Amino acid sequence: MIKNITLIFSLAILFIISGCSSNKSNTDNPNAGRYAMDKDKAPTSAPDVSKVKDATPQYEAYSRGGNRKKYTVMGKSYTVLNSGKGYQATGIASWYGLKFHGHLTANGEVYDMYAMSAAHKTLPLPSFVKVTNTGNGKTVVVRVNDRGPFHQNRLIDLSYAAAYKLDMLKIGTAKVKVEVIYVTDPSLLAVNDAIHTEQHYIQVFASSDKTKINQLAKKLTKQYQLKSRLQTVDNLYRLQLGPIGQQHLATQLTDKLKNDGYSNSYLVTE
């Protein structure tokens, strides 16, 4: 009986000591209660993320919770941009994976390392960015919904899937160019179109060869489902597509024509 009491008492003492030790560990490591893993790593049996599609840029209002104007991490303060429009930067990209998988991002969403997402210190959340690995030319489009990376000299933290598609998992980092793909609020576009009633044409090509111009006109009319016209100045024929009533649509189509190989395309407003 006495031996049993002694054994129970000893076990109780060990339990108390163990509890104190555990509490001490959590105090020293504030993230111990949040993340099960101490260090980040890649998944051991990941799905085939090569088939994961890039994020699709679309208008999303900036969130309230993820866009505090100023915040401080590890003694350093950061100021969040009012808008991502026109943002471009080059720097070092890193990636984050299993340790953070399933936990909440700064935007209040669940981090999925198999989705095309990223973390940035100052871009408003959410933002869509094109990331180019300048070492191999590979590109991805990701949705920024988290804050970081807070390591020195790091520009952006990519999801496991995005890092895979940029071929930077083995090294862990890569030099990248980051460009925001800004999508305007559709309600603002509607107001702008209502105020401005001009007609827009896109000049695509100019040549003194009328036959060549007419052939190209037929091709582009069919391809882009727009009417065409020829403007003649000093025996030079200018091929223009239009009219287009909405300026933002005319601008988008001009950009598309440039990407499709008609690099000299530009907008004409009447």
TrEMBL record:
Its main location: membrane. Residues 1-22 form the signal peptide. Its EC number is 4.2.2.-. The gene is rlpA. It is found in: Cell membrane. It comes from the Bacteria. Belongs to the RlpA family. The lineage of its organism: Bacteria, Pseudomonadati, Pseudomonadota, Gammaproteobacteria, Alteromonadales. This is Endolytic peptidoglycan transglycosylase RlpA. Residues 28-50 are annotated as: Disordered. It is a lipid-anchor. Residues 194-270 form the SPOR domain.
